[in-house]
Amino acid sequence: MDGSIIDTYTTFGSFYDRMLVDVDAAQHRVYVQFFKYEPDAVGQQLGAVLARRAKEGVDVRFLYDDFVCHRWRWYYRYLQSQGVSVAGYAPIHKPLPRFRDYYRNHRKIVSIDDVAYMGGMNIAERYLHGLGWGCWRDTMIRIEGPSALPLRNCFLHDWDTCTRSLRPDDRATPTFGQSHIHTAAGASIQVITSDPNIHDRSIMLHTVRILDEAERYVWFESPYFIPTREVVESMCRAARRGVDVRLLQPPRGDRGEATQWASKYHYGKVLDAGVRIGVYQPGFLHSKIIVSDDHVGVVSSCNIDPRSYRLCLEVATVVDDADFAVSLRDVFLADEAQSTYIDPADWHHRPIWQRLKENICNIISSQM
Fold first, then answer.
1. Which superfamily does 5-175 belong to?
2. How much is the pLDDT for 176?
3. What percent of the chain has pLDDT over 70?
4. What burial class does residue 71 get, using C-beta atoms within 10 Å of its C-beta: 0-12 exposed, 13-18 middle, 19+ buried?
5. Where does residue 230 fall: left (phi above 0), alpha (psi -120 to 50 degrees), or beta otherwise?
6. Cβ-based neighbours of 145, under 8 Å, separated by 6 or more
7. What local confidence, expressed as pLDDT, does residue 159 receive?
8. 349 in Cβ contact with 143 (< 8 Å)
9. Would you kindly state where each structural domain of the chain is located, as residue ranges?
10. What does DSSP say about strands 178-182 and 296-300: parallel, antiparallel, or unpaired?
């Protein structure tokens, strides 16, 4: 590529350990942004490292989503007292919330000098140890080199939105939409952002583009499947013209069963079109990836649901490179080997009570 190196992590432990090494080695800056950062044993371990590096003169900044993390503000204040610069994204207006308070920052980015991480993982013990009924499977990537810069700029854009305090040595941040880095070998890395504040749905539209341009296959992993009309129609179009479209999902949800019932509401339409839906058996599949035609691979913070597409700030890294696409394909195949595909005939004979639950949950799915 352009001298950049991309590594993929499919367990929290491997991602977390490598990130700690990079934070310890940082010379200039450590920028940490998570949708959810819990001050349990894992969060406090990372927090202690961040505080130490801040005291050693490294520019350490920490950005969290204020709505989902408001109960842990006490810990973030502690980090601030230790020299870490802290900001919360979009506190809820009181006593009467505004509509834009529904817009949340769902991105997960860590930028350390010329290294950046992004993907689906937050910071909490359950990502390491799993849930009571199974493991937690997720995907993060680490980019080292020039291609890490757009993720740093994405963080800085959000930081400026929250604090209005970019420093003179901060690099200029890009406008939202897409940031491109083209590699010398003809491949490219794109960081695509979406922002409901400006009605930007770039990630969703790029997903539609991948489906419309696919020739052989498009494979998805997503914890939720409550697609917009554009996405479900493009999936059906691709499957009907012979493209192998597959989707892996978890057997249960992590935020109540309603999201899984709402997801199942959409199964019938895509199954009829020829899309294959697999259920990952070992635990909760929180991974958000797309791979197509051994050509393009996407790792994202964005779920296939209306909240991610319409109400959340999201980020996706799109790598147009055969080696990366094949490596991501192998990740999918490893998960697929532990999954069971739904039989369309059996699906259409499911009980009436199940259909009723699906319809009820679909009615409220826009708020999930």
1. Endonuclease Chain A (3.30.870.10)
2. 43
3. 92
4. exposed
5. alpha
6. 1, 2, 3, 4, 5, 114
7. 96
8. no
9. 5-175, 181-367
10. unpaired
CATH number, domain 181-367: 3.30.870.10
Cis peptide before 250 (omega within 30 of 0): no
DSSP state of 140: E
Mean predicted confidence (pLDDT) in 180-191? 65
Mean pLDDT confidence for 3-20: 95
Same fold for the pair 5-175 and 181-367: yes
List the single range of 134-143, 175-184, 351-360 with lowest mean pLDDT. 175-184
Number of helices (H), then strands (E), in the chain: 14, 19
C-alpha–C-alpha distance, residues 368 and 170, integer Å: 36
Q: Which residue in the block uniquely carries the two structure tokens 């020299």? A: 83
Q: 66 vs 70, 80, 103, 166, CA distance in Å?
A: 5, 15, 11, 20
pLDDT of 235 over the 70 cut = yes
Question: And the tokens for 269?
Answer: 């339409």
Query: Would you place residue 1 in the very low, low, confident or very high pLDDT band (cuts 50, 70, 90)?
Result: low
Q: Specify the long-range contacts of residues 177-183, CB closer than 8 Å, at least 24 apart.
A: 177/202, 178/202, 179/150, 179/153, 179/154, 181/2, 181/4, 181/146, 181/147, 181/149, 181/150, 182/2, 183/1, 183/2, 183/4, 183/147, 183/321
Q: What is the pLDDT of residue 141?
A: 98
CB 238 within 8 A of CB 214: yes
Give the closest residue to 4 by CA, choosing from 190, 131, 204.
Answer: 190
Residue 368: what pLDDT? Answer: 57
- 308, 161 Cβ separation under 8 angstroms: no
* The residue type at 2: D
Mean pLDDT score of the chain: 91
Q: Which two tokens stand for residue 319?
A: 């790598």
Pairing verdict, β 312-320 and 188-194: antiparallel
Per-residue pLDDT at 182 exceeds 50: no
Amino acid at 163: T
Least confident of 38-52, 156-170, 215-229: 156-170
CA–CA separation, 298 and 306 (whole Å): 19
